[in-house]
User: Which sequence fits this backbone?
């Protein structure tokens, strides 16, 4: 069966819209997301546009700051510092990757924990590792919603995550561990990769290599979630060779239409949670 992230995301967006209307009537303001983009990378510009459109769709305010490549690091950091102090801003997002030459870690360190709606900062990742998740990275959070939508009990399942990036692979592994899966994380130095993937009841693939995972690497009846987004000959494809893998799976997510739409809905969810937390603290 196919897991269409678009359908799961639509249900999440409906809930966010209803909660946003409640929020606005209670606090006389809209949740607000500030997005910063540096440079002219077309993929990043598309992601930012989609995020701004998502804000409009659910009734949030959005602020967009576009800087040309070559803008001084200090200017970007100062913008974040001022957004951090702004009481009307609930979430701050810097579109990654930044162009070469910027100190990404230093830029992101200016986003306070409470406005880190991407869930990338050390404190939010630390809370996730301690099993007390606060704001969790949007893509892995979206994958968990997709897994929940299957109705399959995750307890005790063998879960294998391909990829160990700080933004996808590592938080993904922690979420699965917190959901009582037995988790293995594989990466570019893993030997005999198929020995691990063939044992996976749940396989999450986030490596950025088009159609890398093939049918011979899959356990019969596995759930496969393909996080990868690759462009080959102008067409989008995932990290999984969908045509050969799909017949062996119980559930699989397609690309496009799989994880992508979930990421934005989870970003909006994180922003709303941040807005609610801020109002509760006042
Ligand atoms: P990344 O930072 O480049 O990390 C890739 C990971 O894959 C690394 O840990 C790398 O291992 C591992 N890897 C590379 N080649 C491998 C191989 N042959 N076998 C096993 N592991 C291998 O990428 P990312 O940011 O995590 O993103 C991964 C993919 O997901 C990309 O296609 C990206 O576009 C996509 N993505 C999609 C969404 C969405 O919303 N759908 C969101 C984020 C990312 P090492 O650590 O050893 O180098």
Assistant:
């Amino acid at each position: 069966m196919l897991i269409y992230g678009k359908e799961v995301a639509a249900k999440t967006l409906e809930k966010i819209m209803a909660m946003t209307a409640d929020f606005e009537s209670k606090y006389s303001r809209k949740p607000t997301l500030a997005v910063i983009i540096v440079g002219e990378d077309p993929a990043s510009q598309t992601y930012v546009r989609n995020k701004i459109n998502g804000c409009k769709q659910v009734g949030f305010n959005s602020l967009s700051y576009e800087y040309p490549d070559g803008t001084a690091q200090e200017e970007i950091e100062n913008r974040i510092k001022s957004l951090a102090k702004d009481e009307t801003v609930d979430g701050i997002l810097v579109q990654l990757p930044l162009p070469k030459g910027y100190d990404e870690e230093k830029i992101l360190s200016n986003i306070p924990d409470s406005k880190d709606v991407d869930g990338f900062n050390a404190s939010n990742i630390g809370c996730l590792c301690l099993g007390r998740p606060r704001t969790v990275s949007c893509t892995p959070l979206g994958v968990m919603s997709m897994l929940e939508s299957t109705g399959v009990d995750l307890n005790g399942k063998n879960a294998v995550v391909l990829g160990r990036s700080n933004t996808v692979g590592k938080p993904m592994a922690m979420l699965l561990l917190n959901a009582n899966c037995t988790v293995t994380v594989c990466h570019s130095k893993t030997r005999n990769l198929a020995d691990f993937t063939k044992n996976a009841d749940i396989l999450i693939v986030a490596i950025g290599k088009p159609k890398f995972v093939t049918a011979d690497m899959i356990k019969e009846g596995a759930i496969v979630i393909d996080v990868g987004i690759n462009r080959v000959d102008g067409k989008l494809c995932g990290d999984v060779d969908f045509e050969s893998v799909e017949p062996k799976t119980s559930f699989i997510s397609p690309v496009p239409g799989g994880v992508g739409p979930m990421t934005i809905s989870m970003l909006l969810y994180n922003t709303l949670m941040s807005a609610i937390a801020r109002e509760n603290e006042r």
